[in-house]
Structures
1.
Amino acid sequence: MTGPRHQPLAHLALAAAREAPRPDAGVTLRALPYQPSIILRGESGDAAFVKAFRAGLGFDLPLAPNHVSSHDEITALWLGPSEWLILGDVGPVAPAGQGRLARALAGRHHAIISQGDGRQIIAVSGPRARDVLGKLCPLDLESPDLAPGHCARSILARCGILLHPQPGGAYHLHVARSFADYAWRVLAEAGLEFGVAIASGD
């Protein structure tokens, strides 16, 4: 896709709603801009597959459940024993020099599935970010298993999410674009008692 991408939350006029920093806001929401992503499938027990991934992207695929690894603006998030979400320009139709994952895995049993514009990432930060998410998500957000470097599939109210904790107590929520509006609105409502700020997604 070469033209400007339609952002799932553009209809909320978030650019107009962005505010100057609010020291009193307990939670800040950001709709992050489009990021290329793929689903990678392969056998984690296949040493040649794992080695080929490292040869292609220069870092190790996370093999432990709910772990995340990254290198050079590319992030791999564990979704299952044979499935990962890869964020970054690495797909088979990525720009020259960036489609190296597909080349490295050639001849190995695998599948690369482009995600296109199917996902929205919502960043939730601020001193009450955990409290807001705790109202909507059943995960134990204080667990060491949800520290930065980890991820988990769960639900936010009634929609599925992939939760990716960030340094400093922030979170990235990956949600299907068809549920982006719903997820944003329930987060904003849950944060009302703490004060909600809208930040630039840049």
2.
Amino acid sequence: MRLLLVVNTSASSVTARARVVIHKALSADHEVVLKETNRRGHAARLAQGAAADGLDAVVVLGGDGTMNEAVNGLAGSSTALAVLPGGSTNVFARTIGMANDPIEATSQLLSALAAGSVERVGLGQANARYFLFHAGIGFDAAVVAGVEKMASLKRYAGPALFVGAALVTWANGYERHHPAFSVRPDAGPVIDDGYFAVCLNTDPYTYFGNRPLRLVPGTSLVTPLSLVILRRLTLRAVIPVVVAAFGNGLDGDGRKHTTLLRRVGQATVKGHRPVPYQVDGDYVAESEQIELRWAAGVLSLVLPLGPNQLPASRDWPTGAGTRP
């Protein structure tokens, strides 16, 4: 196969040794070109070029932000995405069943490529930006913006950095006394008192160390989105959601002051003021309107052999992808 190996050398757990070992391992059976990213958005352009050249797959060694960039260059093409964990959290790689060690994950990837384990999957979309696992609106995005200001510490601080940024944002950086936005889903009434929302394309929402934080179990790459909306931003409203996330996730329609929507194909978020949003842990911008949409079967994804995020049912015709 013809592969492009995209490496973010600035990612938290990417080392020179791992880069060399992975390149050598992939090159034993495949034709591989290695490119290193050197600026924001570079991975998207490299992936788009690989798709235009008809390469079989783009292998990304980096964090979730680099994966997201590559997806935005590949969506709608026949060139597949293959992921190797290189960041501090590696939400998407772990979600689909990849090992959290890049060398071990390379072995899984080689087996998957040999078996032809490639499937068409769906993506979420927030305005013009595709996302793999989630988009965060409001408080969540403000926390991500805070983390990005201290990006150089991610390699060393890990989850503690996110906890610290969340506490600082809670205390000083986010309006917690007046609703930030309304949500108009494709089915159901308008919710006009949102403070914080997470739009999920997969489960879990993220990881805290080795612990998955699950909001809506059953959300997958082949079914429409799930949407969790917090309608208060107080400790009494937030703590039960955090406790549920460390357990089995939310059930029913959510909890008091929390609305849970499943199988959302489209929703419009209208800000009562400019609202920050992020995709796959990458801060985007503030916006007064965010269009959320599920795009079925727009990405070819190399999946490790064994259990993963793809249940038997899907919401587009079978035959959109292949899986042994």
